[in-house]
Amino acid sequence: MIRFYFHPTPNPAKVALFLEESGLPYTVVPVDTRKGEQHDPAFRAINPNGKVPAIVDPDGPDGKPARVFDSTAILLYLAEKTGRFIGTPADRPDLLSWLMFIATGLGPYSGQAVHFQYFAPGDQAYAINRYRREAERHYQVLNDHLKDRAYLAGTHYTIADMSAWGWIDRVARVMNTTDDPLAPWPHLKRFFQTIDARPAVARARAVGQDHVFKTATDEQSLRALFPSNYPPTP
After folding, report:
1. pTM over the 0.70 mark
2. Does residue 74 share a domain with residue 122?
3. What is the pLDDT of residues 198-212, one digit of tens each?
4. What are φ and ψ of residue 5, in 5° steps?
5. Which is nearest to 202 in space by CA: 7, 21, 40?
6. CA-CA 20 to 30 A from 105: which of 20, 97, 116, 233?
7. Among its keywords, does the record have ATP-binding (predicted)?
8. Using an 8 Å Cβ cutoff, are 125 and 119 in contact?
9. How many CB atoms lie within 10 A of CB 179?
């Protein structure tokens, strides 16, 4: 059974959605990132980068356990393993392009927008403007692409759509609003609502809810989440 190392944040959510869509058997291993559990040696042996998500598949390609880290790598690995949600061979250029667009653009810029609005000390007006505007630009790229199509790559639902869903689901936090955050991007909004209505989404949202994760933002949390901001402990 696949071991799924999880914290309730956007990148693990993508993998949770694939696992629920595919029906692959898995067990959740909570990693409380605000407590610093992602830095434990046992987890670093699975992901040297100290980030969630990660998986360990006991039935790897050579019949031995395989570790996979980074949400995009995991989605590709599981899609290829199962032959599901990967589109057709003709779709592959678009599939890879949109996966990387999310991995290198939408995800990081959204994450930095959240960081500077909610965690960074002092006046961060320039950084907030920079990252929110870039997040908005990425939303516009997606919106324009989805004007006359249902999904990002080809004509079928794929891992590219799951990957986008994970971050678009947090648009209200990225934009720091309780209003209708996707109103400026109606095609993206329709796309998100289509995916969000899938039964597997409700099951993915329930992943990890039986575990109490730390929510306080104290010094321990800041040091665990952003260790490069702090000098090493002597």
Report:
1. yes
2. no
3. 999 999 999 999 999
4. -85, 120
5. 21
6. 20
7. no
8. no
9. 8
